[in-house]
Design brief:
CATH architecture of the largest domain: Up-down Bundle
Order of helices and strands: HHHHHHHHHHHHHHHHHHHHHHHEHHEH
Largest sheet: 2 strands, antiparallel
Radius of gyration: 27 Å
CATH class of the largest domain: Mainly Alpha
Number of strands: 2
Number of domains: 2
Low-confidence stretches: 1-23, 520-525, 534-542
């Protein structure tokens, strides 16, 4: 049998959730959680993507008005990931979000790949927001009568939002709250006004011909999937949320509900008010300013101008939230020694990971300047789907191995009737979307795997502690369950051996068996109580704990070493 030492075993029973002291102040409540999530969603997904999605729904040849169904299907397939993240976030309420969940479940190698991919995904989505807002900036040019250098304006705005992020999340909340509230109210009011005053053609959005075929619906749902990325983006700043056990799950699920209602209602009214063909044009076959077209058709030029200005401001808010979340991935990876330590540094005055924010801002500047933007949404959606599939798998793996990894104790769990069906639905549903999306969905994942492997092999592999992960334990449970129990016993012994002597006294012996779940309850007289173990156990389970200790202490030195501990554990262990 393999010999397990303290370093690679103690984490199985008593690994702490946080690998570093809590250096980020918890400032965000439930309202702030919902606002930050919505501000990450209400941006390019609503102001830019609808017209492109109409063209996607028509197979790329002609626009169709049933695009609202794609947003609804995407929300349904986001729901399993949102539920899983709600559970995971209460067990690991730390900055880094999905990266932390994957790293704790699958280990540092897969964590490096996921963290790098997530950072690039959120960074590119934020860069896309800054690129997209230029489609509406021409309206401001007409108002002020001055030609604006759009590239220079994008860079100036990027510098501004990087500075705001460094100054702290409280300032971001103060900026985002009025923007998100006014933007949401304006768009919903515009929809209500359109329904009340315009001649609407509901057949454009509800007839059988408005949806294309199942392949078109699936590919369009995959295309707009990234629109909901913000619904769980708040998990990336989990270390800054007050009462995470309550505010994380409720904030995530409420923001998904509000976001879905907004996307479905706005896109439906857009297509029944203005013919889908009127949204076409531009460099990519579809206009990138569909909200302006809709608003002008409903209320005239002034209403359209207000909508365009609102689009510029709202997507700026989206970029704010994007840098806020994406910068936490390198922060968390540096904390876990997978990236250089300076990225972990927190600003002395503002309490934010300033170097991670600055690095993310520089990367966004390079992306805005050099990368093509048309396929960014599709690439981001593809990788987002893969991450959600992985997150759903994390819940199943952690639940399955929780007896061996006792640190996994979420304060909120997926309700029993839904687990694990909802996670399996998310995994297989995501796979269907990736199939219909095609090969482009794999590009981002392949790049993340290659770069993540290089990064881990060249930097992280020699700096991280080799621990047995829940994923390894789950595989062992399927192939060699006896080995899993041996690992648990070894881990409990080394966790209880706080002095590192290689032997346990009576109190440490009791602590080890409590960690294994063989002792229920406690009290000052526990050594004189009968041991209580779960499941079908041998008849000796009723022996006094003190008697078991002395029975196992073969050399009568008042201490039990690992071999003696194994003998006791086997004596009271499960039936063969």
């Amino acid at each position: 049998m393999r010999s397990y030492g303290p370093k690679d075993l103690v984490g199985i029973v008593l690994t702490p959730i946080e690998a570093v002291s809590d250096t980020l102040e918890r400032k965000l409540g439930l309202f702030s959680v919902v606002i930050i999530s919505l501000s990450a969603m209400i941006g390019s997904g609503l102001f830019v993507l609808p017209a492109l999605a109409m063209l996607e729904m028509g197979g790329g040849s002609h626009p169709l008005g049933g695009v609202w169904l794609a947003y609804l299907v995407a929300a349904l397939l986001v729901l399993p990931g949102a539920i899983s993240k709600s559970e995971l976030s209460t067990a690991m309420p730390s900055s880094g979000g999905s990266y932390v969940y994957v790293e704790r479940t699958f280990g540092p190698y897969v964590g490096t790949i996921a963290g790098l991919g997530l950072w690039a995904n959120f960074m590119l989505k934020s860069a896309f927001a800054l690129i997209g807002f230029k489609a509406y900036l021409w309206v401001i040019e007409d108002i002020i009568g001055i030609d604006i250098d759009l590239e220079l304006a994008s860079m100036a705005l990027l510098v501004l939002i990087v500075g705001i992020n460094i100054m702290g999340v409280k300032r971001i909340k103060k900026i985002q709250t009025p923007i998100v509230m006014f933007s949401t109210l304006y768009l919903l009011s515009l929809c209500v006004y359109a329904v009340a005053t315009q001649e609407l053609d509901w057949s454009v959005a509800t007839s059988e011909d408005s949806f294309g075929n199942w392949s078109d619906i699936a590919s369009t749902s995959a295309f707009v999937f990234v629109s909901y990325a913000g619904v769980t983006k708040i998990a990336a700043v989990g270390g800054e949320i007050k009462d995470p056990a309550r505010n994380m799950p409720y904030g995530i699920l409420l923001s998904l509900l509000f976001g879905c209602i907004l996307y479905v209602s706005v896109t439906m009214v857009m297509t029944v008010t203005v013919a889908p063909t009127d949204y076409m044009g531009g460099d990519h076959g579809a206009r990138e300013d569909p909200i302006y077209i809709f608003a002008e058709a409903v209320g005239g030029e002034v209403v359209g101008v207000v909508a365009a200005i609102l689009a510029v401001v709202t997507m700026t808010s989206m970029a704010l939230a994007g840098i806020l979340a994406s910068s936490r991935f390198p922060f968390a990876m540096a904390r876990d020694k997978l990236l250089p330590q300076f990225l972990e540094n927190v600003h002395g005055k503002y309490g934010t990971p300033h170097w991670a924010i600055i690095g993310t801002g520089i990367s966004m500047a390079l992306a805005i300047t050099f990368l093509p933007v048309h396929d960014v949404a599709e690439l981001a959606s593809g990788f987002q789907i893969m991450i959600f599939m992985l997150i759903n798998a994390c819940v199943i793996i952690l639940r399955s191995s929780s007896e061996s990894h006792a640190w996994y104790h979420p304060d909120w769990k997926t309700p029993w009737p839904l687990y694990p069906l909802v996670q399996l639905f998310g995994i297989f549903g995501g796979g269907v979307l990736l199939y219909y999306m095609g090969t482009k969905s794999l590009v981002g994942a392949i790049a993340a795997i290659v770069l993540g492997t290089i990064l881990f092999r060249s930097y992280g592999i020699n700096r991280v502690v080799d621990e047995i992960t829940p994923w390894e334990t789950t595989k062992k449970m399927l192939t060699d369950p006896d080995e899993v129990e041996k690992r648990r016993i070894h881990a409990a012994f080394h966790a209880a051996d706080t002095e590192g002597t290689g032997k346990l006294n009576l109190d440490e012996f009791v602590s080890a068996f409590k960690a294994l779940g063989y002792i229920v309850g406690g009290g000052p007289n526990i050594p004189d109580e009968s041991i209580v173990v779960p499941g079908n156990r041998k008849s000796r389970r009723n022996r006094l704990i003190r008697d078991l200790f002395h029975w196992g202490d073969g050399d009568a030195d008042g201490l039990i070493d690992i071999e003696e501990f194994l003998a006791v554990a086997e004596e009271i262990g499960p039936e063969d």
